[in-house]
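Complex record, three chains
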Amino acid sequence: MSSNEAAKISVRNLNAWFGEKLVIRDIDIEIPEKQATAIIGPSGCGKSTFIRCCNRMHELVPGARVQGSIQLDEESIYDRSIDPVLLRRRIGMVFQKPNPFPSMSIRDNVLSGLKLTKSGRLKEADSIVENALQQAALWDEVKDRLNDPGIGLSGGQQQRLCIARALAVEPEVLLMDEPCSALDPVATARIEDLIHGLKDDYTIVIVTHNMQQAARVSDRTAFFLMGELVEYRGTKRMFTTPKDKRTEDYITGKFG
Amino acid sequence: MKLNTRRGRYTETVFQFLCLLAIALPLVLLVLLLADVISDTHGRLTWDFLTSYPSRKAERAGILPGLVGSIYLISLTAAMALPIGIGAAVYLEEYDKRGKLAALIELNISNLAGVPSIIYGLLGLELFVRIIGLGSSLLAGACTMTLLVLPIMIMSSREALKTIPQSFREGAYALGATRWQTVRQVVLPLALPGILTGAILSISRAIGEAAPLLVVGALAYITFLPSGLDSPFTVLPIQIFNWVSRPNQSFLENAAAGIVVLMAAMLLLNSFAIILRNRLHKRRYW
Amino acid sequence: MKHPHIDREYDNELKELRQEIMVMAGEVKKMIARAVQSFISMDTSLANGVTALEYRVNQYEMDIDERCLSILARRQPMASDLRFITLGLKMVTDLERIGDEAVNICERVIDIGSHSLANFYPLISQMAEIAQSMIHDAITAFIEKDAKLAKKVVTRDDEVDALYVEVINKLVDYMVKENVKQGFNALSIAKVLERMADHGTNIAEQVIFMVKGKDIRHSGESS
């Protein structure tokens, strides 16, 4: 990373386990601020686990363990004094399958983060809802039916609703765990377009199975293989001239 | 290759028939039983029967104390068992999943669910009636019934909680919600219909129980309504049991009428549970 | 191949593409050989035959372009595959130009007619040989992904340049003392051969980029 890019998240010697199984080993990576960083790799390479370590979701799984350091703005997130619940308000997350809360309306889904945590910002609920939906490029499609159930939307709209829900909490980082894997190409393109815009305000880390997607949306790409970080560099170079033979083989489709 | 051999079709038909038989047999038996019971009532099932106290004269006897006692007892039981049952299920499912304590508790609960109800009666007699000193009161009966339904209620509530996909919990956690906020605002509202269905079914089982209450000391012959938690009481099954054990034919008619009332009550509760469950399925989005 | 793609049909498509580029390069080499042969043997009918070959080379160019586009669209090649395809697209253009240059030689040969320029045959055919082998090696390097061979091709450009200077000096002398028009024709042929060698160098440089992922063009680096 060149020196003029500030690292939003710095990871040092990160190891993560599920029970006895080491799923991530000795990861060192610096994720630049207000850029999109893609993480690619075959299934089970630890890429999802890695981003779940970044907002301390990994440890919610029984038997899961983390060792090493992750710093958010030079603050160690695994420090004893850090409350993971508060940390997750600074690092939002969007999941593989759209998961709007089924009992809530579109509006309530957007506000759900604030309602769950009884935030004082609920006083400005209307403007927060409009803002978040605008940012998620969903406002025009739903502004006349904000009180309809969130799960009545199409898959792509649901995923954008989940993005709006995450943005309403005003995070600094947005983690996206294969956000388009359940969506059709048009819905995928919408989300990708959205990511390009969100980069101005948020640091984005996107895990994806789809290399073309990583190539399209990210500024930097990291390739994970069997829990290790094999290669990490600018996306352009990564997909034209990777350094490591294993990266080359993976992105040209020579092993699975 | 032959697309469909006769032999295959034959086995299929036999299997279908056997399945049909498995459904039909208990249904037919149930209908026969019901018809028999209803014909045994010989017109005893009148409004007066529901609103009269027991009497030595069969024609004037009614089931009011039993009916009211049952309703009081069940309401009390529900009021006690629901919060405890849901609380225990939430603890086991949401807080201490896979913990050693949870495993121990789980083992005990599934064992308790198989314990004969009379054992609960003995436990209730010793614990509530004697040690705590509630006497043979409505409260002691309700406490005993609570013990009886809790294992089933905890298990069915856990099942209901298990059907809520992890993704909703993760969605809430990722928004910075605490475990309690997640359970209270996301998981419980979604699981509630399922929890209630299980609760109603387990409580409707309690309505039919006589044995543990006999042990605890419910009275058979009572000419007043329970006045408070410490009041003596009776319930429908005991009243019926009492009538059945009398030699007089007309009391048997009373018993039959009581059985019909009891069955109706259970049917009412069960169909309520079914309606609730269907609504849950309609609202199921995952 | 040592590391085939998971989708073996993809391997087939790449293999067919490589083969067709080889065939096209072979045709182009044939054009050079015939053009130079027609010059040396003053055989204008041989020169006319080169034009027919040019038609085929043009067909190959279009066909290979289409194959490359189809792989780009359907396979979204990445990394070395991507470099291979994009380079293939460019290389085909170079090859087609070389074919055009061979036709230029033939036009000169027809103009020269039966006038003998025997003094220049050794130099010209030496240039032609080197140019041919450069093109051959460049294409082989491309197919085999052999950067060493490609580097050799780049250094041989200097040989051709040296020969070209020699030819010019001799031809200037010839033009002053004997026939200006025929001397100019011979000069044009030498110039064409020099340009062919440049195309070969060009291809070789791109092959190095493809193999190493490092661009040595326009960098003044010549190792």
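Note: Residues 173 and 179 of chain B are 7 Å apart (CA to CA).
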